[in-house]
Amino acid sequence: MTASRILVLNSGSSSVKYQLLDMADRSRLAVGLVERIGEAGSRLVHEPLTGPNPGKREQVVPIADHKAALEAVAAELAADGLGLDSPELAAVGHRVVHGGTRFTAPTVIDEEVLAEIRSLIPLAPLHNPANVTGIEVARALRADLPQVAVFDTAFHATMPEYAARYAIDTATADAYSIRRYGFHGTSHAYVSRATAALLGKAPEEVNVIVLHLGNGASASAVRGGVCVDTSMGLTPLEGLVMGTRSGDLDPAVIFHLARVGGLSIDEIDALLNKKSGLLGLCGDNDMREVLRRAGEGDEAARTAFATYVHRLKKYIGAYTAVLGRVDAVVFTAGVGENSAPVREAAVDGLAELGLALDPEANAVRSPEPRLVSAAYSRVAVAVVPTDEELEIATQAYELVTD
User: Could you tell me which of 45, 139, 159, 161 has the fewest CB atoms within 10 Å of its CB?
Assistant: First the structure.
């Protein structure tokens, strides 16, 4: 029996998202979530998608830490005949947010790799510690099983030096690992390839602008399947307007807030990451609520939406210039996939760039990849649902079976 199953783990500070996939046919066998780890009211939601008892199961149980969380996940999987002791399990694939310049491809985890991931915690203090914890617990549960790290930053490692560099003193930048790394890489990789397939071409034949629009949001310019620029930088704060993050900002704003406003570094960090973006502009970080309020004439919501769209247009224009020729602009993630008004507003007025929507096609909601551009649009406009778990599973499986 050939082992073809991959367990994908996405460990957050107080949660674990997971999926079990069979790469023989790229099917999902189970999905689930553990949330509020270490808090009152910890919750485990498990849904087997195969076997005699399909259907969602939910329980509110004390889950003290990530070890208890993964043990609970293992028990749920075992109850469905999908346990971690199965000989069909080929590897565990872990989402790791920051790989720095060291990790530019999926990597089998050993002690040296784990130490390197720990060393990158200063670059991703909110994410890498939880990623490390998930790896440590999973290794303890199945010490004999390959554990594979798939890095959010890896897809963007192909950026040329002039795109990755910030124009600051080189020695200082190198001493503190300051450069543009980019994030959401598994999504940008998956969606750019899926867009090429939608156009009936190989990834090497197309240039694509990918707009990953969720509560976190990023854009990338992908030339022939290779990322040449992306909007997020040293951290996920740079770039587009997001749910609670400011995106692009004059760095002197930070100095001003410190010198004139008297804010501490931690207060400024919290302001820009957790109290800015749509939330800072109008008090809501849910695009659906922003659109509802804007439709009712709420001026703050209208301004927030206009600011969000203005930044999107700027990046579409900038990446058109970077790529020279654009074959498709593709929308993905929660807002990109589900908000027709965002897509319409982002493309409106860009006819000179070859972009035009078909209003009827754009209004359709579907889980399938699809074109929403007008027949006469020189550049395709697409909606492609992202699948980061499948991308992680694919990369992990290819690595351990190569």
Answer: 161
Residues of the chain with pLDDT under 50: none
Q: What torsion, rounded to 10 degrees, do the Cα atoms 334, 336, 337, 342 define?
A: 110
Q: What pLDDT score was predicted for residue 281?
A: 98
The residue annotated as part of the active site, out of 65, 80, 144, 152, is: 152
Closest CA to 276 of 251, 324, 240: 240
Q: Could you tell me the end-to-end alpha-carbon distance of the chain, in angstroms, rounded to an integer?
A: 17
Residue-wise burial string across 103-125, b where 16 or more C-beta atoms lie within 10 A, e elsewhere: beebbebeeebbebbeebeebbe
What pLDDT does 16 receive? 87
Q: What amino acid occupies position 33? A: L
Residue 48 to residue 76: CA distance in whole angstroms: 9
This prediction's pTM: 0.93
pLDDT of residue 216: 92
Tens digits of residue pLDDT in 238-254: 999 999 999 999 999 99
Q: Which residues contact residue 334 at a Cβ distance below 8 angstroms, ignoring those fewer than 6 apart?
A: 213, 214, 215
Res 65: pLDDT: 87
Q: Token pair for residue 198?
A: 């939608």
**Which residues make Cβ contacts (< 8 Å) with residue 296, sequence separation at least 6?**
none
152 classed as catalytic: yes
Q: Measuring CA to CA, which residue among 115, 111, 109, 122 is closest to residue 150? A: 109
